[in-house]
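quick q for whoever's on today - can somebody do inverse folding on this one?? i tried earlier but teh output was garbage lol. tokens:
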């Protein structure tokens, strides 16, 4: 399934009509914060693995 530019624009337009600009900006901010938090947690868990493994040897 491939989405063309016209389908993407239609989805964006429908989201603006349904939710309004102010709510969409809030959703975008929350989504961005969630992605940043998820990435930092992934990096934190990757960095802690070698320290835990070296401590058990």
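ok took a stab at it. sequence:
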């Amino acid at each position: 399934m491939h989405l063309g530019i016209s389908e993407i624009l239609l989805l964006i337009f429908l989201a603006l009509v349904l939710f309004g600009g102010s709510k969409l900006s809030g959703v975008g901010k929350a989504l961005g914060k969630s992605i940043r938090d998820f990435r930092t947690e992934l990096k934190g868990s990757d960095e802690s693995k070698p320290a835990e493994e070296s401590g058990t040897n």
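fwiw The chain has a mean pLDDT of 81. also The chain is about 90% helix and 0% strand. so keep that in mind when u check it
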